[in-house]
Amino acid sequence: MNKYAIAIHGGAGTILKSSMTDEKEQAYKTALEEAIHAGEVILKNGGAALDAVESAIISLENNPLFNAGKGAVFTNTGKNEMDASIMNGLDLRAGAVAGISNIKNPISLAKAVMEKSEHVFLAGAGAIDFAKKINAEFADADYFFVPMRYDQLQKAKQSDTIALDHTADTFENGEKKFGTVGAVAMDVHGNLAAGTSTGGMTNKKYGRVGDSPIIGAGTYANNTTCAISCTGHGEFFIRAVVAYDISCLMEYKGLSLKEACDKVVMDKLVKLGGEGGLIAIDNKGNIELPFNSEGMYRAKKAADSDLYIGIYK
Amino acid sequence: MNKYAIAIHGGAGTILKSSMTDEKEQAYKTALEEAIHAGEVILKNGGAALDAVESAIISLENNPLFNAGKGAVFTNTGKNEMDASIMNGLDLRAGAVAGISNIKNPISLAKAVMEKSEHVFLAGAGAIDFAKKINAEFADADYFFVPMRYDQLQKAKQSDTIALDHTADTFENGEKKFGTVGAVAMDVHGNLAAGTSTGGMTNKKYGRVGDSPIIGAGTYANNTTCAISCTGHGEFFIRAVVAYDISCLMEYKGLSLKEACDKVVMDKLVKLGGEGGLIAIDNKGNIELPFNSEGMYRAKKAADSDLYIGIYK
Known about the structure:
2 copies of one chain form a homodimer.
Chain A: E1 5-13, H1 22-44, H2 49-61, E2 82-88, E3 93-100, H3 106-116, E4 121-123, H4 124-133, H5 141-144, H6 147-158, E5 169-170, E6 176-178, E7 181-186, E8 192-198, E9 208-209, E10 219-221, E11 226-232, H7 234-239, H8 242-253, H9 257-272, E12 276-282, E13 287-288, E14 295-302, E15 305-312
Parallel strand pairs in A: 3-4
Antiparallel strand pairs in A: 1-6, 1-7, 1-14, 2-3, 2-8, 5-6, 7-8, 10-11, 11-12, 12-13, 14-15
Helix pairs in contact in A: 1-2, 2-3, 8-9
């Protein structure tokens, strides 16, 4: 059996064709293609879904177009505070980090928490201590200084009339965008994996943690059912335990991946008021890319099918 | 309809009758009775399940016998870093805090995150900034200095041959104990709520976050199904998304509360290697208190039944 499949996302939100230039659109498409290729090359060579997910997310984290890693947005205090998580569907092992700064690739730190500690979830300064102990790759403030992100912070601060009134990134043209990246994959051995990484919210305060580092909410993988990575208004994704809900609808109610995705993203989340989307793969390699926002940066590729890249509805 | 019910726990682990004195046992029983009374008085007067849960947990947090609030254990650096979460079954609103110090009642801060912010989950120094903004009650290091907890840290440090080798509290006699407190309740209006609060692990490093502040893992409440608060080896509870799993088994597979609890605590968690227990209440007021460890400090009371207090198997 040489069947494999991978899907990635680069965030969801108010992404409209009308507010996109051809150059910007092409830059996103190239970035998505590079990231999916980074994952696919591992799968094609018989590598693990877990490694393919990490590799695809590293590619997205290293690209300033996405709100994760290098392109992470600035918090209210001008820092980059990033969150990430990863899960292995074979044995339900998982790793997550939250509120970390100066780590080049948060997804790799999350993977190290899974593989090199007895813990699942490390946060803040303690997570940085762990990163030092395992010799994780650090990057300085210059690496993370992306002028567009800094401008976003200044604009967000100017409009900050209510202290907590920033549940989404404020973009140049008033767009809402939930900046997160993620990947899900099935390898030729039939194993599933999922990972998610985010730079959080522009002008974020109070050490807010979204769904990205929460196993069950933003990320979940289980060979029995599916692997999921979410992007959207994290508070709603936490309350709805979105990623695990899709797995449960499949395992306990017998829904297909598509039926479960439609139920959660298009029905339950909409009723709760939660905007966003997710990428999903089941243990047959079927892929779904549902979202209830205007757009979602997304791509998928399987051994036996062509590359698909999508941005708008 | 004047039916209400409440259950609480004060942690699970290697709690053996043989290593307990009569005085110590009586002190725990008195503390559990006080806590359940603090919640019941609210329910009896027609108050909200959410408030009863908060009140019962405040009572447990204020008692140095339990690893939460005043009795929180010390981290490796000699600090108290506490986590808590709360969820309202009526509307799936939730609040959580992680890695906080010097807050007298973490459960009340979690409730404030739910009620006074647009967020669900705040961590570390940012959560403390939020606590200052809303005038939460702070307590100084003297308040949290419980000699027994300090001695536990010294002993844990002495035996710390492997940096991350502390997944459970080390007690005087080598017992493992997962120190957490929690409450679940159904009020006379039929609404459910759940809350969990913990002082973490003695000698904790690296900003480890367990399941207690994770909605879906350590805490979950949904009027459609049940309210759950967990205590145990948190890493396994996160990977198994324990609290939401019970809700899903009821909603999607039609299991009773007891069947779902047995499946998750006595079967799935045991297979994964996860030790601990939980308290659960369904929307008919049925209560389950399952655990797969040697013991769990627990109590329950309903409008139409006597107080039950249990410690051992």
